[in-house]
Specification:
By secondary structure, the protein is mostly beta strands. Helices cover 4% and strands 61% of the residues. The protein folds into five domains: 1-30 and 43-126, lipopolysaccharide transport protein A fold (Sandwich), CATH 2.60.450; 140-242, Lipopolysaccharide (LPS) transport protein A like domain (lipopolysaccharide transport protein A fold, Sandwich), CATH 2.60.450; 251-411, Lipopolysaccharide (LPS) transport protein A like domain (lipopolysaccharide transport protein A fold); 432-546, lipopolysaccharide transport protein A fold; 569-707, lipopolysaccharide transport protein A fold, CATH 2.60.450.10. It is built from one helix and 45 strands. It has a 45-stranded antiparallel β-sheet that branches.
Amino acid sequence: MTSWQKRARVGVAVFGIAVAGLVYRSIREPDARATSAPIDRFDPKAILETVGAVLQQVRGTELEYQIESDRSLGYEDGSAKHFNIEITVHKLDGRSFVVTAREALAGPQHVELQLSGEVNLVASDGFQLRTERATFNQNEALARAPGALTFEKGRMRGSGLGGSYNQQSDVLQITQQAVVTATDEAKHTTMDGTAGAATFDRLNNLLSLDSDVRVIRGDERTYADHAVARLSADDGVVTRLELRGNARVEGGAASIESMRAETINMDYTSDGAALERVSLSGAASVSIAADEQSSGRGLGGESLDLLVASDGTVTELTGRGGVQLELRATAQAPARRIRASSLLATGEPGQGLTAVSFRDEVDFVEGGGSALREARSGLLDVSLEGDGIGSAVFSGRVVFTDGGLRAGAAEARYQPARNRLSLSGSDEGGGPRVIDEQINVEARSIDVTLDGRGLQAAGGVRTRLGGRTSATAPKESGGPTGRLPGLLQAGEWVSINADALDYSETEGRALYAGNATLVQGDTAVRGDRISLDRRSGDLSAVGSARSTLVLDTGRTDGRAQEVRYDEAARQLTYSVPPITPTSEPGRAQGSRSLTPLVATVLAQVSGPEGDLRAERIEVVLAREGNQVERLEAYTSVTMVLDARTAVGARLTYHAREQRYVMAGGGITPVAIRESCRETTGRTLTFFRSTDRIVVDGNETRRTETRPCSTPQSSR
C-alpha cells in the first residue's frame, strides 16, 4: 500500500467515525435545536471534533496498529490533534509496542505525529522509553525525541539527551550525554556507563557507546573512544565488552592493575561477575598488581591475550609483536626488562604467572648504571618466583654482559638469587666463553659467580690472562690487583690451558687442574696443576712440573714435582717430595762416588749457569729485571758446567761474581770431576770468570785428587 493510500484510509476512518457519531445522535436524541443552548466547541478552528475516537489498521485478518484518544480534532488543512493518545503497534513476530502521550499533533498528510507530555513507549518484552516530546513517523516506524529521555529494560536503565527509536529494527539511539546502568537482583549497581552517544540494539542484545566512553563495573573502570557491550538475553548482564580507540582498563580482576591498547576485548562469565579472557591489540600493555607473593609486573606488545582464573589471577598470557616484560624493583631485587618478538606466560590459579618463554630477538636488561646486566639470545625461558626471577635460561647465540664482563654460549642459565651464570653448548656463535679486562676463558662448560667475579670451567679450558707484573703493579696491598708473576713480560697476555679452572677475581686466585700449561712467548710452565695468585703475583706448578723461562741472562729450563715462584722473595723453587736414600747396586756404604745414593727423580734446572740437579733448587732473581741473582740447591746436588761435574749436599751460585760454592754433607764429601780427574773435599769453590777452582777440606777432611782409572761419561 502506498503512503497516499494509507493517509486516505486514515482520513476516511476519522471522517467515518465522526459521521457515525452524528447519525447515532440524530436517531437516538430528540430534536432540541429550538430549545437547547449552542454547543461549547473545544477549538473553534476545528472543523471536526471527536470524543473517544478509535482508529484501527487491519491487514487481511491481522490488526497492524490501533490509535485511541480521549478527544480528536480535525482541521481544514487535513491536520489533526489528539489528546491522551495511545498508539498500539502489533508486529508479525508477536511483539507489540504501546506509545502514549498527553497530546499528539498530526500533519496534513498524517505521516508524522508530534507527541508531547509524558511520552511513553512500552514494548511487550518490558522495554520502556520515556520523554517529554517526540515525533513518530508512520512510514519509517521511527520515533524521535529531541530532549531528555530515559529507558529501561529488565535490570538495565539509561538516559540521554536526544535520540530515536526504530520500531522495525528495535534500535534505540541516544545522541548526547548517554548514561547506562545495570543492577543485580538486589538492586545493587553492577554497571555504570557514560558516553557522548549510545545505541541499544535490542534484537542483537548489543549496547554501543561512542565518544568519551567510561564504563564502571565494580572495581573495573573502562575508558575508550568507542565500546560495544554484548548483553545477556535479559539485557541485565554484560558478557563481553569491546573497546576501540585509546582503550584503557583499570582494576577489575584481582591481579590486573591496568590494561591499555587501541583495541581491548573482554569476555566475562555467563553471569557477568568475573573476567575470563582478554584480547588486546595495538600498543597493548598490561600491568599486574603487586601482592604478598610478587612485585608488580608490566607486559606489553603489539597484541596480548590473557586467560583469567575465577580468583582473578592471570594463568596464561600470549604476546606478539615487540613484546616486553617489566619487573619492578624491590628491596630484594633490581628492576628487570625483557624484550622479544613473542612470549608465552603460564601460571596457576592463586599463584598467577610462574613461567614465561620469550622467542626471537630476546633482549634482557637488569639494574642500571654501574650495576647494569644485559643479555641477548634467540630464546629465553624464565621462571618467576616471589619478587623476581628464579632462573632465566637463554639459548641460541647467547651474549651476556655484566659491567666489563662479557659471556657467550649456546645456552646460559642465569640464577639471580645466587648471582650465578652457567654456560654450556656450542653453536654458530661459538662455545662457552667469558671475557673481561683480566681474563678470557673458553671451555666446554663455565660457571660464573657474578658478584665476586669467580668462575669454574671444565673441559678443554683455554684462558688468556692480562694484568700487571711486579714492575708495573702498585706496591700497596689489599684487594685484587690483577697481577702477573714478575718473571713474565709486562703488557703481554698469558695463555693458560688445562682440563679445569677455578678462578676468583676477588680472592685473586686462579687454579688450573689437569694437563695445565702456561705460555707467554717462549716462556712456558707445565704441570698437573697450576696455581696463580693475582694479588701477590705468586705462581706454582705441581705434578710433573716443567718450566721454560726466558730470563735476562738467557733461557732456563727446569723440572720438578713442584715449581713455585714467590713474587715477594723474587724466588723460583724447584722441589720434589722427600725421598728415602738408597744404595746403588754393587757399591758399599760410604764408598766415594760421583753418583749420589738417592732415587733418580730430582729437580733439575738447566740454563746459562749450568745443569743443576737436586731435591730442591732455588733461583733468586734480582729485584729489578729478570736476571738470576743467586742459585741455591739442597740435598743430592749434581752440577754439570761445561766439562766439569760436581756432586755435593749444598750449592750456592752468586751470579754477580760467577762464583759457585758447593759443600758436602755429613761424612759425604764434595767431589768435582774434570775429564778423568776427580777431586774431593769438604767444600768446593769455582770462579767461572777466571776458570779457577778451590777445593777445601775445612780442616776436617784431607783434599784428594786422583786420576780416573777408566773413562766415564758425564751425567
